[in-house]
Amino acid sequence: MHPSPSPRGLVAVSALAACLVAATATFAQEKKEEEPFWAVGRPKGEVTAKMAPVAAPPVPTPEAELPKLTAPPGFKVEVYQSGILDARGIRRGDKGTVFVSSLFVAGKIYAVTGEKGKRVTKVLASGLELPNGIEFNKGSLYVATPKQITRYDNIEDNLDKPPAPVVVYDKLPGDIPHGWKFIKFGPDGKLYVPVGGPCNICDPDPEKYAQIFRINADGTGKEIVARGVRNTVGFDFHPRTKELWFTDNQRDWLSEDMPIDELNRVANPGKDNFGFPYCHSGMMTDPEFGWGKSCDDYVKPAALLGPHAAPLGMRFYTGTMFPQKYRNAIFIARHGPWNRTKKYADVSVAYVDASNKVTKVEPFLEGFVKDNQYLGRPVDVLVMADGSLLVSDDHAGAIYRVSYGK
Amino acid sequence: MASSLQPRARRLIAFAPILSLAAGVLSAGNASAQTLQDKIAACAACHGETGQPANPDIPTIGGQPKLFVMYQLFYYREGRRKSPEMNTVAKDMSDAELTAISDYVARLPAPPPLTDTIEAARYRRGADLARIRLCASCHNPDYSGREQMPRLAGQREGYLFRAFKDYQAGVRVGTQAAMAEAVRGLGDADLADLAYYLARFRP
Hints:
The structure holds two protein chains of two kinds.
Chain A: H1 7-34, H2 46-49, E1 75-81, E2 90-92, E3 98-100, E4 109-113, E5 120-125, E6 133-137, E7 140-144, E8 149-152, E9 166-169, E10 184-185, E11 191-195, E12 211-215, E13 223-227, E14 235-237, E15 244-248, E16 260-266, E17 279-280, E18 284-285, E19 303-307, E20 311-316, E21 330-334, E22 346-352, E23 358-365, E24 369-370, E25 373-374, E26 378-383, E27 389-393, E28 398-404
Antiparallel strand pairs in A: 1-28, 2-3, 3-4, 4-5, 6-7, 7-8, 8-9, 10-11, 11-12, 12-13, 14-15, 15-16, 16-19, 17-18, 20-21, 21-22, 22-23, 24-25, 26-27, 27-28
Chain B: H1 8-27, H2 36-47, H3 66-78, H4 84-90, H5 95-107, H6 120-132, H7 135-139, H8 157-169, H9 178-183, H10 188-199
């Protein structure tokens, strides 16, 4: 029989444990206190010291001062609606309403209604915490914050007096870094939800972070669809194959030109791992977490979208207004880097062939940058019923419409 | 250490006469009849013609980056930063007025550093804290500020201290969570040293 430990011994052990816990906590806290999350991993030097996420003005750009955007010959670009502070995600209601989300600056959800010339913007909800994720399905508007997903039923008939939201899912981790959402219903009727890595670079619990999962419309039946996803803020489903494709923002700071942000295809839902935090861009192991790892063990990107490009919203082109070559091609909003001295931003188009190969990626809508300063930054793209393409801009607080012919 | 920092109640009382002056300017006629000049006069009523108020409890605003001023007026207008005085002033500001006033404020001269006798040890403690907490990384090595990040050099000591406390308490939140992280875990004595240093900063 073991002698029972003396009370004194217990006190000594627990005091030691308390000290250790305190020391560990202090260490962790001190380490964390030194830098904001986005600055972790920043190389020393005057140029990098001046780099920080670009804050948009807290006032939308007046319509006359919006950037003059250009698209290929035959396309027409016009302002769909200006004066929408922090316009981020865009979704179309069955009755023609365009719903708009926002993020850091506005914390609002908007609805744009009415015909050209008489369009109005209504505020449906305000004071929300980073409500970047929105989706419209079967008459309801879904809104996702880092903490939860809620639903506003029969929304298009109640734009002036939206109903109280119903909670759909409230088990999200709630972290601010990469906690804001992009959500979308798949062809399987399930709601797809990403949870990014809660950091620039770290090795978080893979059951909780760095993944895309799906749930039933009522919030039940969670299944992980893709792993090793650092931060996706845009995805869509191929109109023919129904496969999930997503953009993924790679880590910051490695260099001006590395890593390169990704376009990915989920060929094996539930099995595919896209490499975070071990492998970036399908070709480079992480200098801290990549030792002993191989990029060959992870799914390679379908296409590379540019260093620190911040590819956000993407949509397969399912309309018939644009020329044939755009059918089932992917429009991708490249929000543009903050983590790079040379800035760029555009809506690019990726052409996908019958064997799921991306044959080419090229700029489509340009003019967001002047003298290395952002005049606008595209966030999301949306194919309208008539085949025109809407593009949101959170920097200038506007939505543009791109049409072809006529 | 806190003897130089007045309790909040006394500060508000000190502020009251100036506030009513500003309120007088604001209530002259209805809000829509107020010109931009009236609104700029309201700024000057408290913050001084050159952005450097006589009252040491009111922050200097001269030389602040335009985007920083825009954000603060926006936060005050939306009620996301609390100050009864500033919430009232900003409540009916249009986007165009907010932009024009920010432009005006940004053109006011930057404040000179405090010219009292500097306690070298305290100044050094503040400088060490500023280095450890990487203040210059966002606010520039001369603490002149840029973009949405304010000028700290020459700002009022008591105001800086309150700002640090407000960031710690989550009462103030910036465009990123950077400030909450920058001041997390610092005690009042440290925050006071940091404010002491920045108010007197000399390159």
